[in-house]
Amino acid sequence: MGVRRLQKIFLLLFFCFVGYCHSEVAPKYTFLKQATEAPAVSYYDYIIIGGGTAGCPLAATLSQKFSVLLLERGGSPYGNSNITNLASFADTLADLSPTSASQRFVSEDGVINARARVLGGGSCLNAGFYTRASPDYVRRAGWSDGRLVNESYSWVERLVAFQPPMLQWQSAVRDGLLEAGVTPYNGFTYDHIYGTKVGGTIFDSNGHRHTAADLLAYANPSRLTVLLRATASKILWNLKGRRKPAANGVLFKDETGRWKRAYVKRGGEITLAAGAMGSPQLLMLSGVGPRADLAKKGIKVVVDQPMVGKGMSDNPMNAIFVPSPSPVEISLIQVVGITRFGSYIEAASGQFFAGGGGGRGGGAEAPAARDFGIFSPQTGQLSTVPPKQRTPEAIESAVKAMNNLDQSAFRGGFILEKVIGPLSTGHLELKTLNPDDNPSVTFNYFSDPLDLRRCVQGIETIEKVIQTKSFNKFRYSFISIEALLNMTVNFPVNLLPRHKNDSKDLEQFCKDTVMTIWHYHGGCQVGRVVDGDYRVIGVDGLRVIDGSTFYFSPGTNPQATVMMLGR
Question: What is the number of alpha carbons within 13 Å of residue 437 lying toward its C-beta?
C-alpha cells in the first residue's frame, strides 16, 4: 500500500474522529463544478466571491451549518504540476496565458506583480512560508478572542503546514543571521518572535504544495457548491423600502460568457474574499466607492464610500545575489530573521533555483528553463532596471542575456529583506468595467522615509550575514560586498552598476532594485470600509474577509493569518 494511500486513509479517520465524517479528501471533491454546469438562477444561505486563501476556509466552515456557494474565477490547482511541485515554483508566475493560475499586473510605480486566479488563491503561487502573526498584531487587529485565533491557526495547520528540511544552504543562512546578531535562536516555530527561527512551510517532505483549497476537506460536501471559472461581475442589491441597500445576489458569467445569477435566501449574506485587488474592484463595480470615480465610469452609485481602494500597500522586497562555489539545495523560504528595527531577512537558493522543472500552463514536459526561480525576469522580478523601465522588451532582453550565462552562474542564492508594515500607502482605481481586467494600483514604495531606512538596515544586515564565518562555504572570498551589490543591480544583464553610487548609497540601491514579495494589502480596511465584524459600512448583508482589510501585512508572511481569518 503506497504512502499517499495511507495518508488519505489517515485523513479520513482523522475527520471522523473530529466530527467531519461526511468530509472528502482533495482532490476528489464532488462539490467542484465548472460554472457552465450552474443553473441560470440559484439560491443559497451564503455566497462567497473568491475561492482563495480566505474564501476556502470560510466556505468549509460555513458549510457545516448552511448551504454555501463559492465562486472562483480560476480553475482547480489539482493536476497542475507547476503549482504542486516546489521545483516548478517559478513556472506559474511566468505563465502569461489567459488560463494561467497567475494574472500579471504592473503597478503605476512600475513594479511587476501578480494576483491569483485559481482555487486556493495566493497559497498556490507563493514561496510557501507559513508563520503566524505576532500577539501584538492580533491585539491591534481587534481579534479579542485569542483562544479562537489560536484554535483557528491550529485548524489550518493540521492540513497544510509542515516543518521544512534544513539542508546546508538554509542552515548557513540561519547560522549567519545568529552570528550577525539577529538573536536569539528560537528553533522551529510558527510563532512570530524576535530573533532567528525556522518557520513552517506548505510544502510537504516530498516537495508537494498544500494550499487553502485543501482546507475544503473540512467542508460538508452536501452543503457546499464550488463553481470554477465563475467570474463575478457585480453584487446585486435590494433597494426597495429599505433604510440601507441590502446585498442579495451576485451576477456572474461562466467561461463561455453566459450570464448567471445566484441569490442569498432570507437572512443570508454575501462575502467578498477576492483579495486586495479583487475586493475593492468588485465593490466599485457594484456601486460602492468614491462617488466621483464611479460617476466617471458611468456606474450607478449605491453608496458613496470614498475609502474604497484607499490605503493600498505592498511590502517592498530587496535582495542580494550570492553566487556559490559549492553546490546548494533548491529551497524557498525556510528561515527568517525577525529584527527589532523593522525588517525581515529571508532567503532562497538552488541550482536553477526553484524553476524550470516543467512546462508552462500545467505541467507539459519541456526543457528545463534557465532561471533564478523567485527572482527571475520571467516572473517579472527584474531588478536590473528601475521600476518604470521594466517593460516586456526589457524582460525579454534579460531572459536572452540569462540564457547566455554559464551554468555555474545559476548556483547560489538570494538573501532578501522585506520591510515591515509598510508605512507607505497608495490607492486603487478602476481602469475598465470588465472584472477580468486589472484595476490601476499605486503603492508609492518608500514614500515614507522610515520604510527606506528599514530597507537600508535590512541590506546592511544581509551584508553582515554574507561576511560571517558560518556563510564562508557559500560565497567567493574574492568577490567583495560592493561587487555583489553591483551584480545584483544589473543581474543578469551585465556586471556594471546602473548608478555609479549604487553599491555605496544603499538608499539608491533600495529604490533601484525594489521588487514585490506579493504581500500587497488594503483597499477595504477595517474602520474605513468595513466595521469590526467585517460588515461593509453603509449596506446590509455584505462582508469582506481577506487581505484587503489589513493596514499592515501580518507576520513575516501573511498566508497563515489570512487562512486563520477565513476560519
Answer: 9
Please spell the DSSP secondary structure of 131-145, one letter per residue. Answer: -PPPHHHHHHTT---
Kindly tell me if the per-residue pLDDT of 389 is higher than 70.
no
CA angle 252/256/262 to nearest 5° reads 25
- Give residue 3's pLDDT band: very low, low, confident or very high (50, 70, 90): very low
118 marked among binding-site residues = yes
Whether the pLDDT of residue 163 is over 90: the answer is: yes
**2 assigned binding-site residue:** no
CA 147 from chain centre, in angstroms, equals 26
518 is in an annotated binding site: yes
CB burial of 194-220 (b: ≥16 within 10 Å; e: otherwise) equals ebbbbbbbbbbeebebbbbbbbbbbbb
Mean pLDDT value across residues 95-108: 91
Three-class secondary structure of residue 508 per DSSP: helix
Amino acid at 47: I
Residue carrying the nine cell digits 482533495: 26
Q: Is the bond preceding residue 184 a cis peptide, omega within 30 degrees?
A: yes
Residue 74 annotated as part of some ligand binding site: no
Residue where the block lists cell 495547520:
157
pTM value > 0.85:
yes
List, in sequence order, every beta strand (DSSP E) within 303-392.
303-304, 310-312, 316-323, 335-338, 343-349
Eight-state DSSP code of residue 545: -
Distance of CA 81 to the CA centre of its chain: 18
Helices (H), 192-289: 275-285
Buried b (16+ CB within 10 A) or exposed e, 239-253: eeeeeebbbbbbbbb
Query: 305, 306, 347, 342: which is closest to 330 by C-alpha?
Result: 347
Q: How many CB atoms lie within 10 A of CB 36?
A: 14
Band (pLDDT 50/70/90 cuts) for residue 60 is very high
Position 390 confidence tier, pLDDT thresholds 50, 70, 90: low
Catalytic residues: 519
Q: Of 84, 176, 127, 157, which Cα lies nearest the Cα of 330?
A: 127
Q: Which residues contact 387 (CB under 8 A, 6 or more apart)?
A: 109, 110, 111, 445, 514
User: pLDDT tens digit string along 492-539?
Assistant: 432 223 455 555 689 998 998 888 999 999 999 999 999 999 999 999
What H or E segment, with its residue span, contains residue 227? strand 224-228
pLDDT of residue 412: 86
